[in-house]
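Internal QA ticket QA-208
Title: Verify multi-chain structure generation after dependency bump
Assignee: T.L.

Test input:
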Amino acid sequence: MLIVESYFPKRTWTSRRMLRIGFHGLIAIINSLIMRLPSLFIIIPALLIINDSNYGLLNNLKTNFFIKSLIGLMLLDLAFYWWHRINHTINFFWRFHSVHHLDTHLDVTTSLRFHIGELLLSSIFKVSLIFLIGIPISIFIFYEIILSMSNQFHHSNIDLPDKINSTLEKFIVTPRYHANHHTIKKESREANYCSILTIWDKIFLTYKDANDLERTKLGLDDRSKEFGILKYFKHPLS
Ligand SMILES: [Zn+2]
Ligand SMILES: [Zn+2]
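Actual output:
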């Protein structure tokens, strides 16, 4: 996506691109080092427990692995819709998630910009899902991979032709769809919460389109905390 957006950018970069790559890259390195701890000590053990037990919904369904996988993937995507929505509607979670939205631009590096507090909280959420749904290890890993791919795709600074975009948007989150979620305009920012499938915004009536001009005004009203490593990490406490 980094290469594609270099050749076909939708918006001209408003801040130095190398600064964005460096700053968001540094955040990604710090996050992935710290996230080894919850992965090793809570997520992997939870997956191993589920693997060897009968806990959770899927473990108690009398159907084949394919159907179980499909149900598991849909439930995970539905759960992540609500997780994202809660991150916007409950002030405590918004304190962390807002650092993602402080970005005044949107490109593939925005997909790395998540506060470590949000990632740690989401690990606890993931563990509860593993136990409730009874997610097999393979399905969990498969979902994490497609979620990460979708995350990089829908944050990238590209725009698909109208027809392709509107067809794809019926099923999955596209860069234009997610740009609606990053607008300064509250109506479209406090909507469009889907991560992979767009069906959840339709079901829960949270799909709000923005126009082309609105999709160029991104971020939050506060433009001063976009970069700066200390400001970034301290933001949830402010
Ligand atoms: Zn958001
Ligand atoms: Zn985003």
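Spot checks passed. Residues 99 and 235 are 7 Å apart (CA to CA).
Status: verified.
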